[in-house]
Every structure is written in structure tokens, then in C-alpha cells.
Amino acid sequence: xxxxxxxxxxxxxxxxxxxxxxxxxxxxxxxxxxxxxxxxxxxxxxxxxxxxxxxxxxxxxxxxxxxxxxxxxxxxxxxxxxxxxxxxxxxxxxxxxxxxxxxxxxxxxxxxxxxxxxxxxxxxxxxxxxxxxxxxxxxxxxxxxxxxxxxxxxxxxxxxxxxxxxxxxxxxxxxxxxxxxxxxxxxxxxxxxxxxxxxxxxxxxxxxxxxxxxxxxxxxxxxxxxxxxxxxxxxxxxxxxxxxxxxxxxxxxxxxxxxxxxxxxxxxxxxxxxxxxxxxxxxxxxxxxxxxxxxxxxxxxxxxxxxxxxxxxxxxxxxxxxxxxxxxxxxxxxxxxxxxxxxxxxxxxxxxxxxxxxxxxxxxxxxxxxxxxxxxxxxxxxxxxxxxxxxxxxxxxxxxxxxxxxxxxxxx
Length: 412
Hints:
- Helix 6 packs antiparallel against helix 7 (252-277), helix 6 (217-248) packs parallel to helix 11 (351-369) and helix 9 packs across helix 10 (342-349).
- Helices cover 83% and strands 0% of the residues.
- The chain is mainly alpha-helical.
- It folds into two domains: 1-205, MFS general substrate transporter like domains (Growth Hormone, Chain: A), CATH 1.20.1250; 212-412, Growth Hormone, Chain: A (Up-down Bundle).
């Protein structure tokens, strides 16, 4: 009898694990594709004969399209199915890079940025809809954590993979091969048989959304906080390689290794930050402390000619601390959300990332065009200090609304 009862439960668990692995792989692709173009900036600059501000404009187009289409994609996920739009997003993003590799021109670069932005807007609405509908509620937090880690990992390995592809196939080949990853993963998801999620699947205990306004001062501050987080990291992620090459004399491969260390340490930091977030209520102080140390590290990178090994260590430490704050960041938003409105609140504050993504490519592209590569790190220091101040402000409000549920979830 025990075996008869256990078999369906084991099958359900296996299906959940397959779904989590498949959706996390798709999230890996999203972060990998986001960094393909920035990693190829030296190649694109030489081939297209444009400046960094023109290249940065392509990233701004990407961010604008992604920000404008995120809410409509959430609507489509509810009405035509999250599975369908996720498969379309993977395929569309791959198509954008493949076509750029086959028809390299500045107009195709902008067109590819538009298509990549549209594809990128698919992942969060579709991924979270499917995970929310099919993961065990008792393990939902860990499922989300693995999903986030997979995205960080995709960004972490992008520099090394793109550098290897350039070495083996050239810039055109790198674009085509990187693009092909999207349709291949879409095919994998079809073979695995990921489930769909409808609007009905996404209801929580049949509770309707509350009618009160959720645009509060705390939410506005958190939206600005997310924007500053984006600005703090975007310059390093998008222009770190070219800044290290032109301002620090690093080779293309060495600069890519440094960025890989930074992004890889960020992924590890996310997992460590999850443990830390479970053991404190002062999430704003955690975020502020990490970013204060981060600002000091970035200031050293910006002002001191560090030996290569010490530069790698500094980039790794900065990346780790940046990852640690991610769970605390999400807990700050969760604490500020009225009961039953967490989804909408996360949607609102996440627009801060889009705003940062719109501004940062133009800002840091302009910095590079002024032949001031060290200011890529120096400007990040300024944004980090502002982030520290805002993190302390967000920590002053009451945080008890979700503490008791968190305590219960921590029980074995």
C-alpha cells in the first residue's frame, strides 16, 4: 500500500524537477543572450565603424523594448499559455543573433536589439507562471532561487563562451552559434514536455487581488533602488571588457576572464545570500553593508593599477557581494508589498531595472568615447554609494508582515 501511494508522489516530484531544470535552462539562455552583443563590442566596433555610444544605443533599444513589452507578455502568458510564448521567445532571440551574424550591419544590429528585447520580455512572465503553477509550494522559494542562479550562471559563462567562439569561428560565427542555442533549448523543452500555465493555474487559494492602491512611497523608493542597482552593475557587465582592455592594458581574453570571475562570483553569492536572508530581518542593512564594501573595492579598481591576479580577486569579491544582496533585495520588496499584491509590486519595482538598462548603455558608452575607461568603474562607485543610502532608508519601515510565514517555511 505504501508503495502504491508513493509511486504517484514520486512521479509528481520527478515531473517538478524536470520542469524546474527545463525552465532554469531557458533562464540561462536569456542571460547568456543578453551579454552576447556586449561581449562582441570590440568586433562590432571594428566591423561596423561606429563608436561606443552607437553600440550603447543598441543596448538602450533592447532595454526599452524589453521594458515596454514585459506587461503585455504577462497578459499573453495568461491568455494563450506561458509555454507557447516561452518557446517563441527562445526561438526569436536565437533568430535575432543568427540573422545579425549572416547580415552584419548597423541597421541589423538595431533590428536584432529590438527582437532580442522582445524575446527577453518573455522569460520572467512565462517562467514564473509555469513555476508558480507546478512547483511544490513548500519548496517554491528554493525553486525560485535555482531559477535565479541559472540566470546568473548564464551571464557568468557568456564572456568565456563568446571569447572561445570568436577564437574558433570568428565574430560572425560566434553570433550564429550563440543564436542557435535558443532554438535548440526550445526543442529541448518540447522533448522534455514542460507543462503550461493558464490564468486559473496562477490563482493563489482563489484569493482575488486587493483593490487598494499599491503605489506607496516605499514602492517608489524601491523602484529607484532597483534602478540604482542596475546602474551600479550595468557599466561593468556591458563595458567592463572594453574598459579593462583600453584603460588597464588587459588582453581580450584576460578581460573576459576577469568579467567571468565577476559574474560567476555573483552567481555563487546569490546562493549564499539566500542563507543570509533567512537569518535576518534587516535586509536593508545587509544590502547597504555589501554595497558599501563593494564601492570601496570598485574605487580601488578605478584608481589603482592593480596586478592582474589582484584585479581578478577584486572583481571576484565585488561580484560575490553583488550576488549576496539579491535575496535581501527581494525580501525588501516582499516586506513592502500589501497582502495579496506581491506580484504587482515586484512588477512595478522591476521597472527600475528597465530604466537603468535604458540609461546605462548611453552613459557608459559616452564615458568610453571620452577615453575615460576607468570611469566605467568610477561611475559605478557613485551609483553604489547612492544605493547604500537608499537601502538604509528602505530598512526603516516595518517588516513584520511576512516574517511569521518565513519562520514557518524554515521549519523542517
